[in-house]
Amino acid sequence: MAHARTVFLDQHEIDLIHAKSLESLQDIGIKVGSESVLLLLEEHGAKVDYGAMVARIPANMVNQALESCPNDF
């Protein structure tokens, strides 16, 4: 039985999206509505602005989280 395979992005495009995502998480950060979550992120290496409720997440923290996830769901 034949299987069709559709490729939407090549590896270079995937790597570029990943790099820009890491850059955005580190430089811009994410808005978090929970102080307890901000504290948890800070304990694991994020830079937290409690006044703005923003966590800036370094690339190594993201990559470590990705490595601990299963490859398939």
C-alpha-based Rg, rounded:
16 Å
The counted number of beta strands is 3
Number of helices: 3
Q: What average pLDDT do the residues reach?
A: 94
As residue ranges, the low-confidence spans are: none
Q: N-to-C terminal Cα separation, in Å?
A: 24 Å
> Helical content, roughly?
40-55%
Q: Give the structural class.
A: mainly alpha
Largest sheet: 3 strands, antiparallel
**Proportion of residues in β-strands:** 5-15%
Strand order of the largest sheet: 1-3-2
Along the chain, the helix and strand elements come as HEHEEH
What is the general shape?
elongated
Oligomer: single chain
Explain how this protein is built.
This protein is mainly alpha-helical. Helix content is 48%, strand content 11%. It is built from three helices and three strands; from the N terminus they run H-E-H-E-E-H. It has helices at residues 11-27, 35-43, 59-67; strands spanning 30-31, 47-49, 54-56. A three-stranded antiparallel β-sheet has the order 1-3-2. Strand 2 (47-49) and strand 3 (54-56) form a beta hairpin. It is elongated, with a radius of gyration of 16 Å. The two termini are 24 Å apart. The relative contact order is 0.14.
